[in-house]
Amino acid sequence: xxxxxxxxxxxxxxxxxxxxxxxxxxxxxxxxxxxxxxxxxxxxxxxxxxxxxxxxxxxxxxxxxxxxxxxxxxxxxxxxxxxxxxxxxxxxxxxxxxxxxxxxxxxxxxxxxxx
Length: 115
What we know:
Largest sheet: none
Shape: elongated
Low-confidence stretches: none
Oligomer: single chain
Number of helices: 5
Distance between the termini: 46 Å
Mean pLDDT: 90
Order of helices and strands: HHHHH
Number of strands: 0
Structural class: mainly alpha
């Protein structure tokens, strides 16, 4: 392949939903409050909506994909909470914080998708 044809090739498109979910996982993993997680979702969605390279159909698709993944994450976290030894107070508290943050992310993403 010549240098010219390599330079003409478009860069690979970033998977925005995956990037957003990874960011949310990082924020939740650091123990962020549900309010903080919701604000992060709002910032992500605002960035998507203001991106001139995205049409609103793409934004809607990204929101749907994220909502579906977050719903699965909430369900998985609930199942994990059922498996936590209730006598392990630290694990129970950590699980409850993570579940609350995931639920906040899901609610914020769902609300954004209805706008």
